[in-house]
Amino acid sequence: MKQAARPSTSPAPASPRCCAPAIPDGIEALLVDFDGTLADTTPSHEQALRAALQPHGVDLDHDWYGRHVGLSIRDLLAALPDGRQLPHDEIIRQSRTHLLANVHAITPIACVISLLRAARRAGLPCAVASGASRLLVEPGIDALGLRPEFAAVVAREDVPHGKPAPDLYLAAARRLDVPPDRCLAVDDAHDGVTSAHAAGMHVIAVVDGHLAPTDEGGEGASALLQAPGRRCRAGRHGVAGSGQPPPARRRSHRTTLRRTPRRHDQQIPAR
Fold this sequence. Notes:
Layout: E1 2-4, E2 29-32, H1 42-53, H2 62-68, H3 73-79, H4 88-101, H5 110-121, E3 126-129, H6 134-143, E4 152-154, H7 167-176, E5 183-187, H8 190-198, E6 202-207, E7 210-213, H9 219-226, E8 256-257, E9 267-269
Parallel strand pairs: 2-3, 2-5, 3-4, 5-6
Antiparallel strand pairs: 1-9, 5-8, 6-7
């Protein structure tokens, strides 16, 4: 059974100074990553994983983590040098306990919230496509007050392969019953942008808290994401390429995405 999409009534804050790009004609759905895209969770995730690894004699390198941001914790542990020998389940449990205890403190990325609200006003269905576990993503969405905005939430355990494989974004498009080439995806990590491009979607990247269109092949986004000092930040507003000056301060790896079109009064499956 389906019900008509309604404009947002979510209490999650979005700065009035935040400028979201127009949704291009032809776009029928908006898909967003969660960590680092919808919410500024990167510092808390890094802190939680570092704390969980320390009892096992592992000191998490900040730069290494920045290059692998966007992966689920299980995929991070698999990629960690000598990580396969660690007790993954115990580390994951400790990290998640820390994150859930502090979920109320996460903050939204203002420009992504602005884009989300524009999509909802246009009647577009929206979904989350996250490489993290549902155990963390859904409480995070609830903490931001954004549950009513999403017709679907796809998390790492819902697909065989995480990002950069296209599975997560393709699964989200299927849940909304919208062709991938009619979807606009927003992601802040290199692997996420690669995933959305591989799914055949239009992509926008989150770069230093700004929304930056990516090119067809994703090379532009990849360059931004891999550039030293790049990282998405809450509280930074604007659209890359809009003529606004770039943020004075930058931080490490992560961000990117591409562009897309729009549509009238899309129906959203009832949850």
